[in-house]
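Reading group handout, session on sequence-to-structure problems. Before we discuss, look at one worked example. The prompt was deliberately terse, the way you'd type it at a terminal:

> structure SMI1/KNR4 family protein

The input record follows.
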Amino acid sequence: MFKMNSENKKITIKDIEIFESKHGLHLPQEYKAFLLEFNGGYPEKSNFIISDDEGISLVNKFYGIGEESGDLGETFEILDGEIPDGFISIADDPAGNEICIGTEKSEYKEKVYFWRHDMESDSEMDNMFLLAEDLKTFLNKLYGDNDE
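And the output record:
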């Protein structure tokens, strides 16, 4: 079972709608439910496998709406034009890489990817690594240092 440590203020569906309208995107339903429950924070189990070649990383923090530290909107604006179109970053790792989810109007809808910021790429998806088909699957794959 996924557990999150979050002191972020609770948000409403109206807050999400305002966010979507302001940034011109549609978040996946499952991610909206995640924001309504947690609005970002620190996962209790945070390690994940990127790929056999890339190894492992960990979630530093999931972004929330309206948070001073780790604001989803601010991160979206900073990374606009950096990460591929059709994605929004929902979390980061300690090395400054991003965990992204495909938005509703994207061919990658609901899929969770790892974006390596320091990797040279010929195409915009060369530095994107599929982590899970959806957010729930990704969250269930997170593990702690003591897990096998």
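Points for discussion. First: The longest strand covers residues 87-92. Second: Residues 63 and 69 are 8 Å apart (CA to CA).
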